[in-house]
């Protein structure tokens, strides 16, 4: 197996791959199907907030995004370097913690999912907050939906999360209410924790969209479709109901940041709150797939104790412990990341990747049921699943490999195999589970 040299030539690769000595790591491009190498910094640096800037036309928020990115890169680098030097406890200020949380939301909000939501016009807008958005457009005299997305992004980035809570007033006043509520929930209804693999042989994979992937049940209401397909058009699902138990952000192959829902905290008050929300049918009864991940909130050191109790300030210190994740938990975290990867997968240890891929492909919670395959929005998922399974047959082959584009391959497969033969091909690639009742089905799929 060869490694590209800096002069464009080739030289023999060392028998054992040492990322500390070699600047290249493995990368699998899911869109082209090519397995190759990439620079370590490309995969394990701070995510590029301008990756899709040519599509998003951020312009006037570019400078704000740049400042946030630079601030978070400093915090992120300090945490990672300390961990690599053997530190298993570290402290950051409330201000820095808030920046990390904000960054994770911004990375998610600037994704294609949200960017594409605000394309078209209000007449073509199909989401369940359409009436609320129509009223917001009228109040602000906005005619271009993209301006709503840009406005929200700008308000989020430039509004500092102050200790007194004034930011809540600003967010509520200036943002589209539905997205403002989502942002406030992200900032307040979870706590930050860090963990590393317990076994030295385990690693976290790094994916193109790994910052902001969440874990929790997603409810697809197939009994009440947006389009039944009776008029000849493809059947369409309505907006799914989602629950966020954990949000994940791998910082390196050996360190992951986790936002855990407050509903998973220990203590009677949190159990009481969860029971109330479930009785109100605002929170599903399904448990988290990472329920047994042993993490706890950080310890807080207040700068102003106060007579009636501590007074929060931006200078308060949060001391974090880096918790150990068992192999099965590492595989589950990697399964979530692999499930949602759409652009690329990078890794250091082949052995760890293969084990995680096998755990992902055989996990029944992440297999699509046959009836769901009739919905057009699931076609890319099926094609990407085929592409990820294909990696199992490539990892030990010479690099770079020949490419196979997943959607093209999937369409060719459908053309060649009809009816029962097509279903057999699904089973061949591990895409189906045992048929179950799809009415109000709860399937674990992270977004």
UniProtKB/TrEMBL annotation:
Question: Record's InterPro entries?
Answer: DUF4238
Tell me the protein's name: (Perigord truffle) hypothetical protein
